Please model this.
Amino acid sequence: MSLSLSPRRAQHASGVSLPAIDIMGCRVNRVSLNDAVDQLEQWICAPLERVRFVVATGFHGMWEAHRNAEFKRLLNGADMFCPDGIAPVWLSRLQGEPLCGRIPGPDLLEAFVGRAHEKGYSSFFLGDSAETLAALEARSQAEFPGHRIAGLLSPPFRALTPQENAQIVETINRSRPDVLWVALGLPKQERWIYEHLDRLRVPVAVAVGAAFGFFSRRVRRAPEWMGNYGLEWLWRLATEPRKVWRRDIIDGPRFLAVALRETLRARASARRQ
Model:
Protein backbone atom coordinates (compact mmCIF):
# COMPACT_ATOMS: atom_id res chain seq x y z
CA MET A 1 0.00 0.00 0.00
CA SER A 2 1.40 3.40 -0.98
CA LEU A 3 1.27 6.19 1.55
CA SER A 4 1.13 9.91 0.92
CA LEU A 5 3.79 11.19 3.30
CA SER A 6 4.72 14.71 4.28
CA PRO A 7 7.63 15.25 6.69
CA ARG A 8 6.78 17.10 9.90
CA ARG A 9 9.13 18.58 12.46
CA ALA A 10 9.01 17.23 15.99
CA GLN A 11 7.99 19.99 18.37
CA HIS A 12 7.37 20.55 22.05
CA ALA A 13 4.04 22.00 23.10
CA SER A 14 5.85 25.33 23.25
CA GLY A 15 6.74 25.04 19.57
CA VAL A 16 10.47 24.42 20.17
CA SER A 17 11.90 21.61 18.04
CA LEU A 18 13.27 18.56 19.83
CA PRO A 19 17.05 18.25 19.43
CA ALA A 20 17.94 15.68 16.80
CA ILE A 21 20.84 14.37 14.75
CA ASP A 22 20.93 12.71 11.35
CA ILE A 23 21.96 9.04 11.30
CA MET A 24 21.79 7.34 7.90
CA GLY A 25 19.17 9.88 6.81
CA CYS A 26 16.98 9.38 9.91
CA ARG A 27 16.24 12.21 12.34
CA VAL A 28 16.97 10.60 15.71
CA ASN A 29 16.11 12.71 18.75
CA ARG A 30 18.75 13.44 21.36
CA VAL A 31 16.63 12.80 24.43
CA SER A 32 17.03 10.73 27.57
CA LEU A 33 14.41 8.28 28.81
CA ASN A 34 13.19 10.82 31.35
CA ASP A 35 13.08 13.53 28.64
CA ALA A 36 10.95 11.25 26.46
CA VAL A 37 8.45 10.54 29.26
CA ASP A 38 8.33 14.25 30.12
CA GLN A 39 7.55 14.95 26.47
CA LEU A 40 4.73 12.41 26.40
CA GLU A 41 3.28 14.09 29.47
CA GLN A 42 3.56 17.54 27.89
CA TRP A 43 1.69 16.33 24.82
CA ILE A 44 -1.02 14.74 26.98
CA CYS A 45 -1.48 18.01 28.87
CA ALA A 46 -1.43 20.16 25.71
CA PRO A 47 -3.04 18.03 22.98
CA LEU A 48 -3.36 19.15 19.39
CA GLU A 49 -6.10 18.37 16.89
CA ARG A 50 -3.77 15.73 15.43
CA VAL A 51 -2.02 12.80 17.06
CA ARG A 52 1.60 13.09 18.16
CA PHE A 53 3.44 10.17 16.55
CA VAL A 54 6.35 8.49 18.39
CA VAL A 55 8.64 5.72 17.15
CA ALA A 56 11.14 3.70 19.18
CA THR A 57 13.48 1.73 16.95
CA GLY A 58 17.13 0.99 16.38
CA PHE A 59 19.00 -0.75 13.59
CA HIS A 60 15.90 -2.65 12.42
CA GLY A 61 13.94 0.51 11.65
CA MET A 62 16.96 2.37 10.29
CA TRP A 63 17.81 -0.54 7.99
CA GLU A 64 14.23 -0.70 6.73
CA ALA A 65 14.39 3.06 6.13
CA HIS A 66 17.68 2.68 4.24
CA ARG A 67 16.05 0.17 1.90
CA ASN A 68 12.72 1.99 1.57
CA ALA A 69 12.65 5.76 1.00
CA GLU A 70 8.93 5.90 1.72
CA PHE A 71 9.42 4.32 5.13
CA LYS A 72 12.30 6.73 5.83
CA ARG A 73 9.97 9.67 5.15
CA LEU A 74 7.44 8.07 7.50
CA LEU A 75 9.99 7.78 10.34
CA ASN A 76 11.19 11.32 9.75
CA GLY A 77 7.58 12.48 9.95
CA ALA A 78 7.35 11.29 13.55
CA ASP A 79 7.17 13.83 16.35
CA MET A 80 9.77 11.92 18.35
CA PHE A 81 12.25 9.23 17.27
CA CYS A 82 13.63 7.36 20.31
CA PRO A 83 16.85 5.37 19.71
CA ASP A 84 15.87 1.83 20.71
CA GLY A 85 19.11 -0.12 20.66
CA ILE A 86 22.82 0.52 20.91
CA ALA A 87 23.48 0.91 17.15
CA PRO A 88 22.28 4.53 16.82
CA VAL A 89 24.12 5.42 20.04
CA TRP A 90 27.43 4.05 18.74
CA LEU A 91 26.95 5.66 15.33
CA SER A 92 26.17 9.03 16.93
CA ARG A 93 29.46 8.81 18.85
CA LEU A 94 31.36 8.04 15.65
CA GLN A 95 29.79 11.16 14.12
CA GLY A 96 30.92 13.24 17.08
CA GLU A 97 27.31 14.04 18.05
CA PRO A 98 26.58 11.56 20.85
CA LEU A 99 23.03 10.72 21.79
CA CYS A 100 22.03 10.70 25.46
CA GLY A 101 21.75 6.92 25.37
CA ARG A 102 19.41 4.22 24.16
CA ILE A 103 15.67 4.32 24.89
CA PRO A 104 14.37 0.77 24.48
CA GLY A 105 10.64 0.54 23.80
CA PRO A 106 10.05 -1.62 26.91
CA ASP A 107 11.82 1.00 29.06
CA LEU A 108 9.73 3.79 27.56
CA LEU A 109 6.52 1.87 28.21
CA GLU A 110 7.44 0.96 31.79
CA ALA A 111 8.61 4.48 32.62
CA PHE A 112 5.39 5.97 31.28
CA VAL A 113 3.23 3.47 33.17
CA GLY A 114 5.11 4.45 36.35
CA ARG A 115 4.40 8.12 35.65
CA ALA A 116 0.79 7.32 34.77
CA HIS A 117 0.40 5.49 38.09
CA GLU A 118 1.35 8.73 39.86
CA LYS A 119 -0.65 11.09 37.62
CA GLY A 120 -3.64 8.96 36.61
CA TYR A 121 -2.94 8.83 32.87
CA SER A 122 -4.47 6.12 30.70
CA SER A 123 -3.32 3.80 27.92
CA PHE A 124 -4.84 1.76 25.13
CA PHE A 125 -2.84 -1.30 24.03
CA LEU A 126 -3.18 -2.47 20.42
CA GLY A 127 -1.33 -5.56 19.25
CA ASP A 128 0.31 -8.81 20.36
CA SER A 129 -1.74 -11.80 21.55
CA ALA A 130 -4.76 -11.91 23.84
CA GLU A 131 -2.69 -13.88 26.36
CA THR A 132 0.05 -11.22 26.42
CA LEU A 133 -2.50 -8.44 26.84
CA ALA A 134 -4.15 -10.28 29.73
CA ALA A 135 -0.77 -10.67 31.46
CA LEU A 136 0.05 -7.01 30.76
CA GLU A 137 -3.25 -5.92 32.29
CA ALA A 138 -2.73 -8.12 35.35
CA ARG A 139 0.73 -6.71 36.02
CA SER A 140 -0.41 -3.11 35.52
CA GLN A 141 -3.33 -3.54 37.93
CA ALA A 142 -1.14 -5.22 40.54
CA GLU A 143 1.88 -2.91 40.42
CA PHE A 144 0.58 0.33 38.89
CA PRO A 145 -3.07 0.65 39.95
CA GLY A 146 -3.08 4.39 39.31
CA HIS A 147 -2.47 3.74 35.61
CA ARG A 148 -5.83 3.35 33.90
CA ILE A 149 -6.10 0.86 31.04
CA ALA A 150 -8.63 2.36 28.66
CA GLY A 151 -8.64 -0.69 26.40
CA LEU A 152 -6.78 -3.70 25.04
CA LEU A 153 -7.17 -5.18 21.58
CA SER A 154 -5.39 -8.04 19.84
CA PRO A 155 -6.25 -7.79 16.13
CA PRO A 156 -6.12 -10.81 13.81
CA PHE A 157 -2.63 -11.78 12.62
CA ARG A 158 -3.40 -10.97 8.99
CA ALA A 159 -4.08 -7.98 6.77
CA LEU A 160 -7.09 -6.09 8.09
CA THR A 161 -9.97 -4.89 5.96
CA PRO A 162 -10.82 -1.15 5.82
CA GLN A 163 -13.96 -1.93 7.82
CA GLU A 164 -11.95 -3.70 10.53
CA ASN A 165 -9.48 -0.83 10.74
CA ALA A 166 -12.32 1.68 10.99
CA GLN A 167 -13.86 -0.33 13.84
CA ILE A 168 -10.51 -0.47 15.67
CA VAL A 169 -10.09 3.30 15.35
CA GLU A 170 -13.64 3.85 16.60
CA THR A 171 -13.01 1.59 19.60
CA ILE A 172 -9.82 3.48 20.47
CA ASN A 173 -11.42 6.89 20.10
CA ARG A 174 -14.40 5.86 22.20
CA SER A 175 -12.12 4.80 25.06
CA ARG A 176 -10.36 8.21 25.08
CA PRO A 177 -6.86 7.09 26.19
CA ASP A 178 -4.02 9.50 26.85
CA VAL A 179 -1.56 7.29 24.95
CA LEU A 180 -2.13 4.62 22.32
CA TRP A 181 0.59 1.93 22.35
CA VAL A 182 0.84 -0.07 19.11
CA ALA A 183 2.76 -3.37 18.94
CA LEU A 184 2.15 -4.88 15.52
CA GLY A 185 5.79 -5.34 14.54
CA LEU A 186 7.95 -3.09 12.38
CA PRO A 187 7.12 -1.70 9.81
CA LYS A 188 3.43 -2.63 10.14
CA GLN A 189 2.89 -0.72 13.40
CA GLU A 190 4.42 2.53 12.11
CA ARG A 191 2.45 2.30 8.89
CA TRP A 192 -0.78 1.59 10.77
CA ILE A 193 -0.38 4.67 12.94
CA TYR A 194 0.56 6.90 10.01
CA GLU A 195 -2.36 5.69 7.91
CA HIS A 196 -4.81 6.56 10.71
CA LEU A 197 -3.34 9.81 12.05
CA ASP A 198 -6.23 11.86 10.69
CA ARG A 199 -8.87 9.64 12.29
CA LEU A 200 -7.37 8.85 15.68
CA ARG A 201 -8.53 11.12 18.50
CA VAL A 202 -5.79 10.54 21.05
CA PRO A 203 -2.98 12.88 22.18
CA VAL A 204 -0.11 10.45 21.48
CA ALA A 205 0.42 7.18 19.56
CA VAL A 206 3.62 5.19 20.12
CA ALA A 207 4.97 2.38 17.93
CA VAL A 208 6.67 0.17 20.48
CA GLY A 209 7.52 -3.22 18.94
CA ALA A 210 7.89 -6.16 21.33
CA ALA A 211 7.38 -4.08 24.49
CA PHE A 212 4.09 -5.72 25.49
CA GLY A 213 5.73 -9.11 25.84
CA PHE A 214 8.49 -7.71 28.03
CA PHE A 215 6.19 -5.57 30.20
CA SER A 216 3.83 -8.51 30.72
CA ARG A 217 6.86 -10.64 31.64
CA ARG A 218 5.76 -13.36 29.25
CA VAL A 219 9.06 -12.76 27.42
CA ARG A 220 12.25 -12.68 29.44
CA ARG A 221 14.44 -9.69 28.77
CA ALA A 222 18.21 -9.64 28.37
CA PRO A 223 20.26 -8.48 31.39
CA GLU A 224 20.88 -4.74 31.31
CA TRP A 225 24.64 -5.19 30.83
CA MET A 226 24.03 -7.08 27.58
CA GLY A 227 21.95 -4.21 26.24
CA ASN A 228 24.57 -1.66 27.25
CA TYR A 229 27.27 -3.62 25.41
CA GLY A 230 25.16 -4.11 22.30
CA LEU A 231 24.52 -7.82 22.93
CA GLU A 232 20.75 -7.80 23.39
CA TRP A 233 20.39 -9.14 19.85
CA LEU A 234 22.35 -12.25 20.89
CA TRP A 235 20.02 -12.83 23.83
CA ARG A 236 16.93 -12.54 21.63
CA LEU A 237 18.49 -14.80 19.00
CA ALA A 238 19.04 -17.44 21.69
CA THR A 239 15.57 -17.08 23.23
CA GLU A 240 13.44 -16.28 20.14
CA PRO A 241 15.42 -17.70 17.16
CA ARG A 242 12.46 -18.24 14.83
CA LYS A 243 11.33 -14.65 15.28
CA VAL A 244 14.61 -12.75 14.88
CA TRP A 245 17.15 -15.00 13.12
CA ARG A 246 16.89 -13.35 9.72
CA ARG A 247 17.03 -9.83 11.12
CA ASP A 248 20.02 -10.52 13.37
CA ILE A 249 22.08 -12.90 11.23
CA ILE A 250 21.46 -11.48 7.73
CA ASP A 251 20.25 -7.88 8.09
CA GLY A 252 22.47 -7.02 11.08
CA PRO A 253 25.86 -7.42 9.34
CA ARG A 254 24.55 -5.69 6.21
CA PHE A 255 23.33 -2.76 8.26
CA LEU A 256 26.62 -2.53 10.14
CA ALA A 257 28.68 -2.41 6.94
CA VAL A 258 26.51 0.28 5.35
CA ALA A 259 26.16 2.30 8.55
CA LEU A 260 29.91 2.38 9.25
CA ARG A 261 30.70 3.35 5.66
CA GLU A 262 28.15 6.17 5.58
CA THR A 263 29.01 7.42 9.07
CA LEU A 264 32.75 7.54 8.43
CA ARG A 265 32.19 9.20 5.07
CA ALA A 266 30.00 11.87 6.65
CA ARG A 267 32.55 12.43 9.40
CA ALA A 268 35.37 12.84 6.87
CA SER A 269 33.28 15.26 4.84
CA ALA A 270 32.54 17.35 7.93
CA ARG A 271 36.25 17.58 8.75
CA ARG A 272 37.06 18.88 5.26
CA GLN A 273 34.56 21.71 5.55
